[in-house]
Amino acid sequence: MPESGARAGTGLAEATEREFPVPTPLDGHGPARIIAMANQKGGVGKTTTTINLGAALAEYGRRVLLVDFDPQGAASAGLGINAHELDRTIYNLLMEPRSDVREIIERTTVENLDVVPANIDLSAAEVQLVNEVAREQALARVLRPVQDDYDVILIDCQPSLGLLTVNALAAAHGVLIPLEAEFFALRGVALLVETIEKVQERINPRLRIDGILATMVDLRTLHSREVIERVQQAFGEKVFDTMISRTVKFPDASVASEPITSYAPSHPGAEAYRRLARELVARGDAA
Ligand SMILES: Nc1ncnc2c1ncn2[C@@H]1O[C@H](COP(=O)(O)OP(=O)(O)OP(=O)(O)O)[C@@H](O)[C@H]1O
Ligand SMILES: [Mg+2]
Which domain holds residue 177? Predict the structure, then answer.
């Protein structure tokens, strides 16, 4: 567990007001830092964060690859890619050792933002991988050839702690945990942290928790503020200062198959994900 109470008393006001510098332009690209968005609880904002953090980093000139690692294909759909009509997706990359990720990568309408799509085929991988050699390392192997082409690779995990999520953790440098600001948010996080620690000990020593991101926050309610304070007490400095407010603009943007940063560029929700991108770079968790 991260050091607890490290920032107790820091207070919400400071967290919401601190500014982070605009990232300096990069001379070249790569090698990518790989970040997995993980929380086995469903509907906490993993996909929304993958898409919008990715788009915000891309706006800052970072080359970003999103890996849709959920058979629901929400990250692909959210970027306008009709993955259900694709014959070849992340599933084929996992199951065919000689396949090349560069043949599967799709461009998106956002400059500097590419995606490895997923569809329902991926649900079979969980079962089929079990019998493979180095079954936890399949995604790491898939990503290796393009690691030097991107600055950041974001993996959108499905809501489970199964073999696919373990593959994401095995491939990653860091984990970003989106946490919905509601009363039972912390339930299950201990199990997630335990899983992360096991992967770190047994498979991927470089893995660390980059941070906890409070999502669907409504700071006007006492309830939301109390939940955030409890999360800050439990995780200290691991909690991002940036929080994502609850707004219908996020579901609206996904219906439009666009990141909020292009769907509603000046909306506070777009600005929040840009701030998260700046915070991530300021912390050294992205180039
Ligand atoms: N800050 C927000 N405010 C309001 N709605 C949001 C916010 N973030 C996400 N949503 C909406 O909540 C729903 C769940 O979000 P999202 O799909 O990002 O979660 P998830 O963790 O990826 O879910 P799953 O576990 O099913 O993959 C979506 O309809 C999304 O548009
Ligand atoms: Mg999702």
Answer: 29-282
